[in-house]
Predict the 3D structure of the following.
Amino acid sequence: MPRITVPEFTGFKAARRKIAMVTAYDFPQARLVDAAGIEGILVGDSMSMVVQGHDNTLPVTLDEMIYHAEMVGRAVEHALVIVDMPFPSFHLGTHRAIENAGRILKETRCQAVKLEGGVEQAGTIAALVSAGIPVMAHCGLRPQSVHTLGGYKVQRDERELLADAKAAEKAGAFAIVLECIPRAIAKRITETVNIPTIGIGAGADCDGQVLVLHDLLGITTGYVPRFVKPYADLKTEVTRAVTKYRDEVRSGAFPAKEHGYD
Ligand code: KIV
């Protein structure tokens, strides 16, 4: 089955098909989540926290994002693949933003970029789109602005949120992530714009949902936000399996005859 295209992804809204997205950061993860038949895979800058172990998403670099996105891009056959533009790769003028987003598309086989911002990034979104680079916008809680926002807080300014979403749509974004906003505001935005809204902590009325893979699988080692539903407890399972292996190595039960060669 060929990959979902950007116009097909946007068209899911009119077709009333709910969109399921998840993050992935390497080849086997991408293969597994793609095989589950989801519509979108995001190489998120959440990698900075869940893979690299940093406190926030600011440290991850463009080169690191491209290194991981290339593995994901090579693995995925079906889903649309989107790559986060890390801080501050789109803040240094539209020329640099096109150069950086262009590198992502040229070097990774991924199809689109995501950037945090609405009204204040409208010019950059329009410049990228006019260069042929599809952009997913990210409004509401913008983790790259954690210091300005004063923490990871629910964003409640309806007027500002609506203005951001409308500006992103007008600038040519093909979809918008809405992070950590009240359900009623997300519903209002979803009913107002013609492009899909992808919620994370934004309630059930969005056109789709996205979760961080490590949160979904229960392998996040740090803080897990309230909006996460863990669909597995792999942290417990990994510890159980490795502890059993350790015990069997110590007791001599592993390796058995069938694990060796005569
Ligand atoms: O970086 C990321 O994983 C994200 C999602 C949480 C939307 O931006």
User: Anything to note?
Assistant: The chain has a mean pLDDT of 98. Residues 6-231 form a domain with the TIM Barrel fold (CATH 3.20.20.60). The pocket of 3-methyl-2-oxobutanoic acid is lined by residues 23, 42, 44-46, 84, 138, 177, 200, 210, 212 (CB under 6 Å). The chain has two domains: 6-231, 233-262.
